[in-house]
């Protein structure tokens, strides 16, 4: 009877747990080394504890979302383990899910812990061995055997899957160890930066509105003569702006901040569902038809009261003023600011506050059909440690599940390439 393949996975996050399940299903003996005392600590915090576990999209749609380079690399794994496969996978583990109108998929319970437990329980049933509270110091290879060195002694393996995550949310155990391991085997690491992270503004007025949320805001910027736009909820912070729409914009700006010599100007559109001409007409009619109504109450059709008061100050008028008393210049300024309030962005928040890490193990050195290193046979990578990152909406967890499934399945094979 052939011996079972010995596989060691570094990291018990969503990518590592998925890899462990698929490797164990393939008949391998699997050890997971986890530096924390419990698995999936970052997973437990995703989606504000609700865990947006995937996005209900076709593999082709996913590929388009990630753009040319990343999409090309991820295409195979998205087709092999698609969002639909993820839903079937969790359903078979007893997890009920709910798909919202925007395509975001959550556990029906809105509890990230249920997603973690579904993965953990399946891995345990398959005999995966968890080695908690062990931080791998280094990984070496002697002939066909890997040695994962820990303070409590080495762990031997024929195959190793690095699923350590990136540098975001370091309190959950994401300390960049995977990059160190990759470098030790000759891999290049693309520069790591914060992605899906709040933005810091040059102006201090957002601090006056700190804590004020707005449901649907269109955020626009122009970089290298190319217009970029994202949309979603926004919240003002002490030093700038946050919220899902802002986090998505940060993906586009992070490569230019803070390297840009001048701030990047963005605009905030609080009437995102209306075209400019239609909005101008609507706002003009509201002002003309309600001459005795307070300006701030008219603005409340589009923005929360605190923002309306601020916009009145910018326009140089009292928010208690009636619409019929507005000057021509103040009226023009208010209409312009509701559709395109300018804000200068100087930097992102620190990577420790980012949802995901931009950059990582160079995709040029990874085989996209197996997630195996092209440099070191038997070494695999999965999840955020790779140079891939997506927008908000469950895309980044889909990366973890798809690359983890592929790496775990491929690592079982005796002859990988």
Architecture overview:
This protein has 417 residues and is α+β, with helices and mostly antiparallel strands. It folds into two domains: 6-194 and 355-412, FAD/NAD(P)-binding domain (3-Layer(bba) Sandwich), CATH 3.50.50; 198-348, no CATH class. Helix content is 32%, strand content 25%. It is built from twelve helices and 21 strands. The protein has helices spanning 14-25, 59-65, 67-80, 83-92, 112-125, 177-184, 244-253, 276-289, 295-299, 305-315, 328-339, 395-412; strands at 6-10, 29-33, 54-55, 97-99, 104-107, 129-131, 138-142, 145-150, 153-157, 159-162, 189-195, 199-201, 213-223, 226-236, 240-242, 264-269, 341-348, 356-361, 366-367, 372-373, 379-381. The strands form six sheets. A six-stranded antiparallel barrel has the order 12-15-14-13-16-17. Helix 3 (67-80) crosses helix 12. It is elongated. The mean pLDDT is 94.
List the helices and strands and how they pair.
Layout (H helix, E strand, L loop, with lengths): L5 E5 L3 H12 L3 E5 L20 E2 L3 H7 L1 H14 L2 H10 L4 E3 L4 E4 L4 H14 L3 E3 L6 E5 L2 E6 L2 E5 L1 E4 L14 H8 L4 E7 L3 E3 L11 E11 L2 E11 L3 E3 L1 H10 L10 E6 L6 H14 L5 H5 L5 H11 L12 H12 L1 E8 L7 E6 L4 E2 L4 E2 L5 E3 L13 H18 L5
Parallel strand pairs: 1-2, 1-10, 2-6, 10-21
Antiparallel strand pairs: 3-5, 4-5, 7-8, 8-9, 11-18, 12-15, 12-17, 13-14, 13-16, 14-15, 16-17, 19-20
Helix pairs in contact: 1-5, 1-12, 2-3, 3-12, 10-11
């Amino acid at each position: 009877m052939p011996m079972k393949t010995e596989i060691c996975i570094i990291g018990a996050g969503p990518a590592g747990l998925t890899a462990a399940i698929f490797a164990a299903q393939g008949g391998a003996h699997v050890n997971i080394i986890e530096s924390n005392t419990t698995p999936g600590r970052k997973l437990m915090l995703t989606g504000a504890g609700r865990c947006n576990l995937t996005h209900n999209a076709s593999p082709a749609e996913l590929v388009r979302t990630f753009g040319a380079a990343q999409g090309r690399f991820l295409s195979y794994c998205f087709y092999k383990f698609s969002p639909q496969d993820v839903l079937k996978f969790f359903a078979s583990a007893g997890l009920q899910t709910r798909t919202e109108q925007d395509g975001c998929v959550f556990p029906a319970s809105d509890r990230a812990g249920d997603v973690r437990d579904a993965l953990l329980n399946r891995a345990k049933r398959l005999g995966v061995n968890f080695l908690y509270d062990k931080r791998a110091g280094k990984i070496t290879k002697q002939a066909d055997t890997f040695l994962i060195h820990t303070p409590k002694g080495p762990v031997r393996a024929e195959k190793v899957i690095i699923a350590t995550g990136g540098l975001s949310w370091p309190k959950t155990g994401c300390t960049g160890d995977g990059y160190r391991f990759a470098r030790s085997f000759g891999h290049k690491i693309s520069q790591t930066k914060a992605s899906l992270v709040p933005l810091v503004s040059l102006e201090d007025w957002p601090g006056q509105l700190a804590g004020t949320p707005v449901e649907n805001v269109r955020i626009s910027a122009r970089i290298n003569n190319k217009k970029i736009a994202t949309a979603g909820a926004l919240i003002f912070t002490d030093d700038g702006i946050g919220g899902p729409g802002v986090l998505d914009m940060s993906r586009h700006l992070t490569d230019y901040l803070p390297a840009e010599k001048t701030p990047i100007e963005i605009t905030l559109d609080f009437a995102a569902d209306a075209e400019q001409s239609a909005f101008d007409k609507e706002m003009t009619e509201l002002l003309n038809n309600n001459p005795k109504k307070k300006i701030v109450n008219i603005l409340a059709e589009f923005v929360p009261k605190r923002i309306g008061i601020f916009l009145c100050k910018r326009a140089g008028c009292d928010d208690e003023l009636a619409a019929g008393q507005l000057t021509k210049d103040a009226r023009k300024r208010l209409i312009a600011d509701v559709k395109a309030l300018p804000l200068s962005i100087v930097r992102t928040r620190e990577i420790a506050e980012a949802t995901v890490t931009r950059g990582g193990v160079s995709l040029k050195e990874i085989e996209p059909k197996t997630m195996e290193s092209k440099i070191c046979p038997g070494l695999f990578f999965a999840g955020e440690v790779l140079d891939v990152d997506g927008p908000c909406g469950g895309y980044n967890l889909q990366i973890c599940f798809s690359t983890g499934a592929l790496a775990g399945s491929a690592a079982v094979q005796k002859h990988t390439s």
